[in-house]
Fold these 3 entries.
Entry 1:
Amino acid sequence: MKRQVRNKAWAGRFAAASNPVMEAFTSSLAFDKRLALYDIRGSVAHCRMLVKQKILTRTEGEKIIRGLEGVQRELEQGRFPFLPLDEDIHMAIERRLTEKIGPLGGKLHTARSRNDQVLLDVCLYLRDEIAAIQQLLGALQKQLTRLAKRHSTVVMPGYTHLQRAQPVLLAHHLLAYYEMLSRDRERLQQCRERVNVLPLGAGALAGTTLPIDRHHVARLLGFPRVSENSLDTVADRDFLVEFLSACAILCMHLSRLAEELVLWASSEFGFIELPDAFATGSSMMPQKKNPDVPELVRGKTGRVYGNLFALLTVLKGLPLSYNRDLQEDKEPLFDTVDTVKGVLTVLEAMLPQVVFREERLREAALGGFTLATDVADYLVEKGVPFRKAHEIVGAVVRWCLAENKRLEQLSLQEWQRFSPLFGQDLFPRLTLESAVERRRSYGGTARANIERRLRSIGA
Amino acid sequence: MKRQVRNKAWAGRFAAASNPVMEAFTSSLAFDKRLALYDIRGSVAHCRMLVKQKILTRTEGEKIIRGLEGVQRELEQGRFPFLPLDEDIHMAIERRLTEKIGPLGGKLHTARSRNDQVLLDVCLYLRDEIAAIQQLLGALQKQLTRLAKRHSTVVMPGYTHLQRAQPVLLAHHLLAYYEMLSRDRERLQQCRERVNVLPLGAGALAGTTLPIDRHHVARLLGFPRVSENSLDTVADRDFLVEFLSACAILCMHLSRLAEELVLWASSEFGFIELPDAFATGSSMMPQKKNPDVPELVRGKTGRVYGNLFALLTVLKGLPLSYNRDLQEDKEPLFDTVDTVKGVLTVLEAMLPQVVFREERLREAALGGFTLATDVADYLVEKGVPFRKAHEIVGAVVRWCLAENKRLEQLSLQEWQRFSPLFGQDLFPRLTLESAVERRRSYGGTARANIERRLRSIGA
Amino acid sequence: MKRQVRNKAWAGRFAAASNPVMEAFTSSLAFDKRLALYDIRGSVAHCRMLVKQKILTRTEGEKIIRGLEGVQRELEQGRFPFLPLDEDIHMAIERRLTEKIGPLGGKLHTARSRNDQVLLDVCLYLRDEIAAIQQLLGALQKQLTRLAKRHSTVVMPGYTHLQRAQPVLLAHHLLAYYEMLSRDRERLQQCRERVNVLPLGAGALAGTTLPIDRHHVARLLGFPRVSENSLDTVADRDFLVEFLSACAILCMHLSRLAEELVLWASSEFGFIELPDAFATGSSMMPQKKNPDVPELVRGKTGRVYGNLFALLTVLKGLPLSYNRDLQEDKEPLFDTVDTVKGVLTVLEAMLPQVVFREERLREAALGGFTLATDVADYLVEKGVPFRKAHEIVGAVVRWCLAENKRLEQLSLQEWQRFSPLFGQDLFPRLTLESAVERRRSYGGTARANIERRLRSIGA
Amino acid sequence: MKRQVRNKAWAGRFAAASNPVMEAFTSSLAFDKRLALYDIRGSVAHCRMLVKQKILTRTEGEKIIRGLEGVQRELEQGRFPFLPLDEDIHMAIERRLTEKIGPLGGKLHTARSRNDQVLLDVCLYLRDEIAAIQQLLGALQKQLTRLAKRHSTVVMPGYTHLQRAQPVLLAHHLLAYYEMLSRDRERLQQCRERVNVLPLGAGALAGTTLPIDRHHVARLLGFPRVSENSLDTVADRDFLVEFLSACAILCMHLSRLAEELVLWASSEFGFIELPDAFATGSSMMPQKKNPDVPELVRGKTGRVYGNLFALLTVLKGLPLSYNRDLQEDKEPLFDTVDTVKGVLTVLEAMLPQVVFREERLREAALGGFTLATDVADYLVEKGVPFRKAHEIVGAVVRWCLAENKRLEQLSLQEWQRFSPLFGQDLFPRLTLESAVERRRSYGGTARANIERRLRSIGA
């Protein structure tokens, strides 16, 4: 039993061995394994700095780094021997290093604590993952602009309240998602700057008495900034909450796109045909072709929201500085990274294969009196106050509904029953093309606007 | 490529093969494996019913069941050959069954869909897990009552606002958690009754045209009830939300206990000594003995809250009936079950080894003027309106603070400066024992109450 | 300044007056006003018990009760003079009582604390509100069964993945919501039993030294149970979390119904026409008729989820017993009660006026190869293993898609190209009526099932 | 009844009047009143632009603006006559304008929709409120730096796991919160830039056919940017989610500070004395002085988390573009703004009056073997590998615990029993001042660091 205690790096003060139930409960190895290579990278930089500051000799430093490189190879080749007694990845690596190079391995932890070490690992990891997500976001935006260009003249109904409202270009609709993803990228970029601050050197909570050089470590690892307050550093998980929250917004955007894909793939809308390669069937109903991909994209929003809330809950009311509760930061983070990369990847692969049924879109755009606002605007141009114009056209629509007619079918005489201001010049307005083309206000759906926007984003 | 499509149970209608990105994205095998044995148990019952109803012949039924038993052995012995193309555990098992018994395996899915099949698996699983959690809850309650009995005369300060308020028995404090866990058990029991409703037979969404007997399946599997509406059945995840919500409340309770353990283990409180076997040290600070177990218990509240919110988000606004989003129900469920069992297990193991420092508790109970209410009650008994009594004692306390005295140290003369009603009979009141013993109102902290409660719960 | 301190019921011990910023920040009067009449009702019962126990004289009791009745009249008539210095509704009422009957008013608070008093108010309030919600739930269920009976022969497409799957009766679809609401009622009923436990008498945290009779108060106020542990009682908000969680599930159900109403009211589905009286228009687009009511019902799910998580967050990690954080329980509760009653009321008023377009529903049910499963079942009855049958029908569907045909249009010869087992007896199967009627498995969509269910629920 | 429909700006197309239940359910006037003055400001700018673009004549424009100014005065003086039929603040103001200036009022809504109008109001409002919150954040930071300077030599125990870990300066601890709030300000500043984008001109969803000049409106209202895509604009609530999420992090920070204040104000810690003016008493216990302010600050975290999740839920899965669900964005926003301003204001008022009990802090810092790491560092400097040093000191601590000694009490002989490397030069290390002063690593607790940081932030 005593032997077991001795295996712990912190066992000196303890009289009794750890209970295995406790060990299983507190171990983080199952998930923090993922940080292994970042841990080694951080340790190498830490070691180089210790040498530069003469806290370690050059020979000691070289031996440790060679040892770490050996451990790294074992990890990369899947040969690293994890042991049940390893509490976490940091201890596993240090234990292995010591097996390889002897007690000298025990010098690596000089002037650092796991509290700042694990933060370094997470920052290195997340910095990379944000870059990867940015790339995937860019790729998805690319697919959206490609689709927009491919379908640059296709008109569809624009909706409010899921009711047909005014005709818009499909390209305009697709680019709305482009804009959302642009904001996501901006937010993630700014979040990354707050991730990109060196925590190492905060020690357990108060810094260290040894003459370390944190700015040197920062340079070695490419951190533009060094954290300012050691207590804050080890207690802080802001950058994770902020990342989770940026991902929650991103997934919210994708849930809206997914919802639309599900709607559009329904028989009722019939706006798109999903590629067979991205649909699945039913185990019971032989005719089914289901939009599982967008459904799962929509559903996975839940887990990202949940991860955000999990971490916010963990942090609520924690006194300074480090508390073990903070170990619960990793699984929500990892799951969010995996989920976000997964949904972006699958959408980017699927989108270019989605077939837009242009005729159905156009037909739908003609339904639902979508040109009514154009008629009101026509009256406004003739001097009618907008509210009055709105009322007149409302009456026209009500009459059409009763008579089962469409606006395009009314004769001039019929129009004039509602207002003498209607003239022949109304009719050219009553086409989808006119409606779209005349919405030239900045950000409006006119084709010229779309083209300008595509140019301005370099698509 | 075509070959790949053919492997799917639903491939008949599809012209192109699945994209591997899509397959990886939609596969649930990694986590629904956990349901494997429940899936087989459900299939055996389904098969027996198909035979009883003459949808399968007796020979077919026997062959299928023998086949399923073979698959079960493979699963139990870890020899089951999972394939990358298996979409989920149901398809993996059916595929394996067909490998073993030939095309007859294809008859097992008669009159059912994965939509009702997976629900059956989850119900069987959760039914068992709730029972397991109930048992762990009972075991933890047992430890609480044991501690209460062991320390039946120990007085400690009762707190409001984390300020010492009135003396209470430690046993009373411990039993407060007993009561919380009792409500948890009651809620889980009622939830279990709503889990315990047979979903199988709802088919994909509308029931089946084949002459099945759902009540027979229910009897075979021990379900007291059969679901009433097939559309509702395949769309419903209420019982999971309810379970997650009951677990969120349970974990909230444990987070409060954990918070108290962390406080009590601090140098400042010093009320308890955690067992070495359930504490950990620091990699940097040699003197540290940290309450990692209660900290993690407290932190894990976050993931359970997060899981609840994840599932609520998934379900929000989903049209009937089954949607693939619902696949996202399993990981929050499994993680919650594991987490709840984990925290209950570790607390049940740790609690009996916690050492309560009785002298510190008693000393603390004497501080903070905890007997002030007793003095006010004394005046009330002498006919002073409570508000006036409260004011008088408030003034006494203010004077004591200025003079740096404790209530117990005042002379009768000093008391009488504040009210002539104070007499010698006040002094016997100014002990912790008196204060505790006199709180005999039902549910109050008097020892007689505690003993009565312990008896009534059979402890 | 000193004067201001003196106004506080607890000022005796304080040397300096309250800061007005603090007073504004901590005051709960703005929202706990709502509990005023419950507070008086609780005080009357408390007072009667104090008389019975001879803690107050009969004369004192009568005077206090008459005073409270006067205060009640002022509240009911909107004449109650709230003062800025009233901290909360309890203090406001006690202050007013004392203005009316003099220092005797100060005796009312004998043997109770605001900690147990406010809980009593909340329990009385919530008990009533749950009953009110139950009634509204029943009324909405009534409208669903009425609609089901009114449209008892209407066939519509049943959906999975928002793809047409199998024909179902509209009545079956409507009754799916009936079942959900039944579970909601069951949950709320069980929650109400946990609300219905008398907290008064727990005192501030430890009970009281005065000889109160809690069971008498319980009888006077109709509580079947009395709380068991005073510390638990004042710290407990389980019953509120449970209520919020039951409401979250309920609102989730309504969000699904709302989503369907929005879909069905779209031009693309066209399944329903919303009544003008429950739709709104657009300030810009004269033709619009928007389903604002179901949209808002769907949206309000957010606030109820948010309220649940607000309270769970408040409770996480709070040490025993009462902490002021708990004051934050009231606004989420009140907002949830208002929201739930609002959505139930508006749906109950709107539903009977929704016009179902039966022809559109029927037409839609015919599309999307919804009879494919019936063909597969046909083959199963001829002895084909289900998986094989599924494959054959899948191939038929693929062929139809290529040839732009519907299943009903195929000749026997064409069928037999896919399997020689197809015979003339297939054709009677290829009708919506047959498909619906043959799904007679318990809980399936057959009309007989619906009628049985309507009878069993007394509709 | 017909009259009632006619009152609606959108009534033209409707045959039946609104149901009053529906009107009450959908009305937003009760809360969007708060936007009234912003609505007028936006309308004035819109009107000026319409004149510039010759959509209105100069005379019309002047008349409208004078009318709006009249309405503004009524609002400012509380004389504005709200009517039950006003659906929202926009309609109320337009209705009132028309009462004042006749049908010309109906021209104001030319070329805009409530969909973009309400967004403009919210952007103008939130832009101001973020600025106000930034100011409050700055003021609270100021109080923290003042306290840090006032107590610049006070040593306290630094904690990890709520166990005393290493001595730190109180100023270092206080500045940790300064750093958190700095990140909050940075995040809010970046959020504000995304709020600061003109939405007006997006129309209902697709822009407008009228020749508006959005950039002119932007200049008039001080928006540096104009939104790029009209569909995205009316569907977007990112900036609100981002604001709520920044506030959730901010409140999480304050919940940690609040937790520490509650702990420190307890008898057990005794680190601070709260000012009487910011504490409250108990209605039952005359001696109580409770930290209600920090408790409520901590509790209010819940509502801000809840508001964030409410809005995320609302947005999940909404198809483009505007849906009425989005009306549910306002109450969580307003409540968050009020809550955040409230907690910042009260903390800023209270903090300078908190009395730090310097002797208690110092005494506590001496307990718990907080100098153990310094001893280990001492051995490292003598060449012992850190792990070995840690083990040696661990053994010393264990021995001290058994012997009931403190590190400072050991003789050289006793030290040397554990390692011959201990020498006389150890003793000067064993003081709090040495421990603090030697932690000079960047961000560490040494006084020089604190002073440097205070200078760098201009305090």
Entry 2:
Amino acid sequence: MRINRARLAESMDALGRIGETPRGGLNRVALTDDDRRGRDLLVRWMKEAGLAVTVDQMGNIFGVRPGTEARPPVFMGSHADSVPTGGKYDGQLGVLCALETLRTLNERGARTPHPVGMIVFTNEEGARFQPAMIASGVMAGKIPLEDAYNARDRDGRRLVDELERIGYLGSEPCVPRPMRAYLELHIEQGPILEEEHLPLGVVEGIVAIAWSRVTVHGVQDHAGPTPMRTRHDALVVAAEVVGGVRQIARKIGGDLVATVGRLDVVPNIPNAIPGRASFSVDFRDPRESTLDRALSMLDRVVRAAAKREGVRAEVEHYWRVPRTFFDREVVDAVEEAALTLGCGHRRILSGAGHDAQYMAAICPTGMIFVPSRAGRSHCEEEFTDLDDIEHGANALLLACARLAGAGPATAGRAL
Amino acid sequence: MRINRARLAESMDALGRIGETPRGGLNRVALTDDDRRGRDLLVRWMKEAGLAVTVDQMGNIFGVRPGTEARPPVFMGSHADSVPTGGKYDGQLGVLCALETLRTLNERGARTPHPVGMIVFTNEEGARFQPAMIASGVMAGKIPLEDAYNARDRDGRRLVDELERIGYLGSEPCVPRPMRAYLELHIEQGPILEEEHLPLGVVEGIVAIAWSRVTVHGVQDHAGPTPMRTRHDALVVAAEVVGGVRQIARKIGGDLVATVGRLDVVPNIPNAIPGRASFSVDFRDPRESTLDRALSMLDRVVRAAAKREGVRAEVEHYWRVPRTFFDREVVDAVEEAALTLGCGHRRILSGAGHDAQYMAAICPTGMIFVPSRAGRSHCEEEFTDLDDIEHGANALLLACARLAGAGPATAGRAL
């Protein structure tokens, strides 16, 4: 049993046209009109595949194919939202490989004791509403539903209002439900698989992630007649901290990555001394203790920079996802699928956060990585070769069938 | 002859309500709907004052009160646009004091050989369309009309289209016309008058100004799986230059002021390494040679920071206004008005750019400053005491009457 490569490629093309950028990337930010159009297409396909489709309170879309027994389902899934100038593989690929797996099971008339389903998660990227992975976070009980509903985008719009506006505020409770397993296929977003010429990564876990928000309150004034000695410039402080964050990564070294990805200045015009600057800090490391150390260094850097400029600054450490270890049985199932397919693979740790990170708190969870060209993602240049995608999708199919308890008959055909 | 303080205060209140912020400041950015509403009110008042009102190709509004002879007019003026979270004095005050002067001349039946008029300039702040003072720049022949028309705001809208949209794309050529003099009353926007307890500044000139734009082209990538060693982060470079600009001011010292007021990051989300960062640099100093030195230091700082991060960066030195010396006769007329009024005053240099800077290339020009509380402006806390405003407006009236050649009869009543 193998997936249909041409059908998968066709679906990738069709979904990738919704929110496509002029340079061939994807701009389909969560809960925008394009996100709705993407969701509508997915729901149509899911229904055409005979799945029972439901939407929960966070807009997560579930589609389930019945099993032969009343057992908890195996779910596959990923997200369909992108960053503003992102690529066509991050998220979308996992959703479409899950769909292709279900289509293949249908086509082959495969009977599995456990039902098999797919999930399309809401706002995984966190580009519009923070934090990222907010919908799986609510499902796992790690983020209160009310907090998620009240998350606001740059323009002050609430997540719940945007969910309702695009017609995806569902009624199913967003809570942990019995699941046999959760399996997510995703692009690696790093350079390792490509460097080692391996089409497949057997993901063992995800690094710990900490997000902070720093707000510097300076004194807005005219850039001309205000002497240097009397200035309290919020951006000067923010800039010093951006440099400081880079220094923290250098001092701690190892696997720590540190990024200031967002910075907003007020009033942001050439001839006013910035009165306010706020920015994000993203730290990731396999070890929790390293994150603790980085966060306290950040506190010190902010305090020192603010003091030098005579301004007030606030640091909020508002989101943290602990180091995740995936389930041994699921990881083994992925590895066995790779062996069955005879394709090169290695165990690997994810440096990016995924909904699988929260799902691991609900049920046995694992992930499959496919290579990213030049390790690049969250950009329009994001690309994965279709040969690699085919390997990944087949591994997803085989691992899923195994976890769903496909009997010797199906397994025989499958393997 | 003196202005009517209550009438002036009433007009300030009425115009200040258009675009008023919740905290009592002003948000009436150029060519927005609120700018149109403000302009409409001014035009109504100008017509009620019997002025002949015309609008030129840059949306500058002219209102002229006839003289007794066919001579070039004396113009007063300023701008009616504000920065996004600005105050109710910057610009607006000069326009309303000009109007109050004309109303007073009417009321007293003053006859002047030279006509007396007022100008409301378009987009002085440069908050929406760069550069600042764009409309007087065109008038003085320093900025091509086509360049000004093609200036775009953040959303890509062209200045000319917005002028047309709000109904202020006039037909009068925006070129130098014969003018006896140009006089602009403005808040100081600096701390000197307040520190010295003087209600009036006799402005001798304006510092030289240089605006640059720096664009850093990094490599957008995922903030998680991208190792620190392979990053090319545009914001890290920008931040280093922000610190470098502060250092340039420190090293050169003296009167140089240096500001990065605007910084835009792409894609500006927490979990993507910034692929692009662009920012403004504003240098001002009384000496041209100091600006030359600062600009070449900026070039070096950008080059070094970009090289360290392995990225490309462009620096455009796109706008420069030379040091302006105001006309001796006009400066003297302002000083004599202050002496006549018996109010404390001093000669002063402006650290802020004004339309008067370009007007000085067209005709004899001068300015009157009134104090700014705590020296603050371009912020909602901007404030000038009404007593000081009254002194300033009366000085404008007297200086204007003198320059317009008010005869002994008028002068007698005037002084």
Entry 3:
Amino acid sequence: MRELELIDALEHVLAPGGPRVVRWLGDDAAVVRGRGYAVTSVDSMVNGVHFRLGQLSPEEIGHRALAGALSDLAAMGAHPGEAYMTLGLPTGTRLSDAVSVARGAQALASRFDVAIAGGDVTAAPALTVAFTVVGWASDPGELVGREGAQAGDLVAVTGTLGGAGAGLALLDARVPADSVSEPVARALRERYAHPEPRFADGLRLSALGARAMIDLSDGLATDARHLAVRSGVSIELSLQRLPLADGLGEIAEQLGVDAGVFAATAGEDYELCACLPESARLGSADESNRGGAGQDEAPGLTWIGRVVEGPSGLAFTDAADGLAGYEHSL
Amino acid sequence: MRELELIDALEHVLAPGGPRVVRWLGDDAAVVRGRGYAVTSVDSMVNGVHFRLGQLSPEEIGHRALAGALSDLAAMGAHPGEAYMTLGLPTGTRLSDAVSVARGAQALASRFDVAIAGGDVTAAPALTVAFTVVGWASDPGELVGREGAQAGDLVAVTGTLGGAGAGLALLDARVPADSVSEPVARALRERYAHPEPRFADGLRLSALGARAMIDLSDGLATDARHLAVRSGVSIELSLQRLPLADGLGEIAEQLGVDAGVFAATAGEDYELCACLPESARLGSADESNRGGAGQDEAPGLTWIGRVVEGPSGLAFTDAADGLAGYEHSL
């Protein structure tokens, strides 16, 4: 495949962004009209590390890579803006597959009014899909970092946990395909293949007064610890309160692990975890009962623990084993 | 190596940016105060594709990856702002080597007041260093794209050409080490290992009225064709007018190629090529004679050809062989 032929094909798949985008693909750099403060994150997914070709279609790989990056913006309570795509392509990659990766990303981008405004194509030993995503905020005070949790805060998560990990366990054939019903298996695979950046939830949690927030890419046990360490507080969570994805009980049983432990460690759910003042619980009750969170149709919040005084760290108050020592390594 | 240990070490090497940077490493995303229009480019360098470990130190790899990305901003006539670094690290990468890559990039960033404001670390099959760089412009009209060249314009390049390619030929031992004197060999290797983003030249060329501009990463034969195609014009260049790096004659002779052809095709010089109205030549004459271009100490401009009416494309008017058909493929 020739580089110029690929770039030409990509220019046809990627939709030029709205009036904000002054210069787009085809120049040395893209030019975008800024709005206040730029909120920027970079995220890469590598075949054999973050996904496996054969388990996901090229479109799903493109969706998943962009969703993982956008999820970081959602976790700041930012509005999405632009994305920049880097494709690392091994020798022999088919033009149609590379274009399909871009098509999958563009479909997600269009739903959130994100312009894929530029990118880079390079040779690489493994298929790599990397996104730089930029959101905008008029006031940095609206954005939620990781460092503001205070003793007395309650901890909430959006959606359900463990679904993506269970979907991957099915794809990996680590559990029998008939562990769950066909529709449940399909839904679990979807959680893995098509994660959803929780923009509506991020904005809602920011509006509810969230003092610290993170997206759950590595799993609650790792990610909530980041909140605790950056905030200098102790976070106590309950495994039994975690909102489990449908079918998780059966999958965890087949794997021989506690469903709560699986939900807290499997990762890749891209839900949000936030620490909020206790008063926010009342403010959210109505919405939670209605079970809707706007455009991305996430279920309501689930309250899973609290922030307490004490040495920085995370504890599961009802964990029988050494979950407290769990740490993600490269 | 543990990911958190590496991230901790990187936080000590990377200098927090000035007052523009509101949130830095350690959150889901960086937050930076914008200024008008964001000018954004992404660029990746992969071991075995864009460099070879063993030929360059980790610091040089970091410098080169950031310089290649910043060069795209220079080619727009933009002021540099922030950079976001992604490290893809193979199993067994030493913590000290990963930190040295960051140190090399930070040294370059500091010289141009660029804040490395965020990043990502991931496992990868080959060492990969990718940068997203963001510059800012208050008026997009000050920025120079690739599409504005007009018949009658003159074509200029900054600095000298072929030096990086000659340095690589020496590193690859494709030519005897004694083809040139020791100091010349050292200077050629430097051109390859420490490319310099030509920000001062980019701003000067923009001020001189440049209508189209590009940086020379793939080589003049490829990159000037991009200007011709995007502008819908024909560009005629002279191989004999190309400003050759010191020692290029000897290296090209050893390789059995014409020095001008080598300078036009070897790539990686990261000089700028611009199309300007003829009147700009007078405006630049004085500066050119003084031989200085400000902060990056590039020599003056060299006028190497002109833009003419005709089908989009590039021709070397004095090329004996099929250089006109030269095309870069992935």
